[in-house]
Design a protein that fits this description.
single chain; mainly alpha; Globin-like; 8 helices; binds protoporphyrin IX containing FE; heme; iron; Globin/Proto; Globin-like_sf; heme binding
């Protein structure tokens, strides 16, 4: 279910915006700061490509579905930034279960995201506002 062309099929799950793990911003300020869906797409593509190529965390991404990841993370960011999308991916606990993600991996991913946002020209304050939405997801992403 929910596989787009070029994606691998995943186990069935219930589609719900709550799977995104955060409530969206209100108004269009954040969406504008990220240059709308086009800007979000550029940030996510850059971030995911960098994650796969990264010497520190690339191994965790090896053999994962890059096409799906780019789509679902785009939807998640777009939904949270109130840029006009619904999130159709899995919840964060299910998506990262038994992946063995450690604190250092998390910090590395955030660093890569920060550089991807900076490359798009997102202001520092808006970057940090967005990162505070993602921060509570740590507990669902990190290996227990
Ligand atoms: C707050 C931080 C994070 C967010 C918001 C996030 C978001 C997501 C999303 C939306 C998905 C796709 C869910 C789906 O396919 O239905 C996903 C999957 C994945 N994430 Fe994360 N993630 C985070 C942290 C991390 C970290 C730190 C790593 C590893 C360094 C990681 C590695 C992966 C991998 C490998 C998948 C693919 C899983 C699969 O296809 O089975 N994520 N993540």
């Amino acid at each position: 279910a929910n596989a787009m062309p070029g994606e691998e099929v995943v186990d069935p799950y219930t589609v719900d915006n709550r799977n995104a793990g955060a409530t969206p911003f209100t108004g269009d300020g954040m969406a504008k700061a990220f240059h709308g869906q086009d800007g979000i797409r550029r940030i996510v593509d850059r971030m995911v490509d960098t994650n796969f190529a990264d010497p520190a965390i690339g191994e965790i991404f090896a053999n994962q579905d890059k096409v799906r990841l780019k789509r679902t993370i785009f939807e998640q960011f777009c939904y949270i930034l109130n840029a006009g999308c619904a999130y159709t991916g899995r919840d964060m606990a299910t998506a990262h279960k038994d992946m063995g993600v450690q604190k250092a991996d998390m910090n590395r991913l955030v660093e890569i995201l920060q550089r991807s946002m900076a490359a798009e020209g997102v202001g520092f304050q808006e970057q940090n506002r967005f990162l505070s939405k993602l921060a509570p997801m740590r507990r669902d992403v990190l290996q227990k």
